Amino acid sequence: MAEPGEGLPEEVLALIFRHLSLRDRAAAARVCRAWAAAATCSAVWHDTKISCECELEGMLPPYLSACLDHVHNLRLEFEPSRKPSRRAAIELLMVLAGRAPGLRGLRLECRGEKPLFDAGRDVLEAVHAVCGAASQLRHLDLRRLPFTLDNALVLQAARSCPELHSLFLDNSTLVGSVGPGSVLELLEACPRLRALGLHLASLSHAILEALAAPDRAPFALLALRCACPEDARASPLPNEAWVSLRRRHPGLAVELELEPALPAESVTRVLQPAVPVAALRLNLSGDTVGPLRFAAHHYAATLCALEVRAAASAELNAALEELAARCAALREVHCFCVVSHSVLDAFRAHCPRLRTYTLKLKREPHPWRPTLLA
């Protein structure tokens, strides 16, 4: 009798199996020889998502270990407060470090709450090991890693991963320990870097000048997070430096996230007229109306996404209406407070590219879900 997989080409089976969870891939590989060959081919594992929360609770399965050589881009999820999940993630990273030449992309995402006073040293050591071994690594995303990142990690990436195209260090830590000096070394060692995520304290005038250098490859994205005390004390960046950077890279997009730790005077220093802000997220403890009006006047040509967390007020409604009238390129708007009907009308009337919005006219149970436009 014919085996159940004999009627489908391996390429078709691989296309199906790549959408399965880790456990389902392992189950498919046990069905028959044809399915086993398809489930372990490189096409299935090229882009892989692994959840240590629901798929890896004990030792690394032999099936997964045998397929790690095929993984080019890995998204790894784990819960640091649960020991089995954390241990599985670290074990996987360390095994990957021993067989990492083919790894091109690594994205780490932590779920749940981080244990109090947890520095994450064991997790960071595993990330160091991967960076030290993955000489072809092109994309490293640590935005969802809630531990303090430091100069040693940046320098490890600079020395061992010269092919880096993107590096995101703008995570939710309460302490900023990456200095501008290590970022400068990174830029010098990784000439193809075109996307960078940093805390504001890690940025400097010298870095903007390095990015604007004539021999620099096209730079596309700079994500800046202002969320810790070091960010509030960061030196101001002159508007002229942004003018030069924008002239050198006309396609540059800046994502700017301002958190409650940033006092009003620091907000004024961060918001420079020449910054090509494409995404603006305001979650300030103080004035939000002023930054919104500033954005309406200076970022109208570049602003595509806006997120606001503030207390509802008539002044906020007026600022949102003005921004809607000026920023026609907006594609998404999310306000996590009740707004007036005129605000909703303004965005729908003046922003023809709008695709999704969260503009609630009355209080609703959380989470607030966005409205999608056809």
UniProtKB/TrEMBL annotation:
Metal-binding is among the record's keywords: no
Question: What top-level branch of life does the organism fall under?
Answer: Eukaryota
Does Kinase show up as a keyword for this record? Answer: no
InterPro entries in the cross-refs: F-box-like_dom_sf, F-box_dom, LRR_dom_sf
Alphabetically ordered keywords of this record: Ubl conjugation pathway
Q: Where is the F-box domain?
A: 2-48
Q: Quaternary structure per UniProt?
A: Directly interacts with SKP1 and CUL1.
The function of this protein is: Substrate-recognition component of the SCF (SKP1-CUL1-F-box protein)-type E3 ubiquitin ligase complex.
What protein name does the entry list? F-box/LRR-repeat protein 8
Q: What is the lineage of its organism?
A: Eukaryota, Metazoa, Chordata, Craniata, Vertebrata
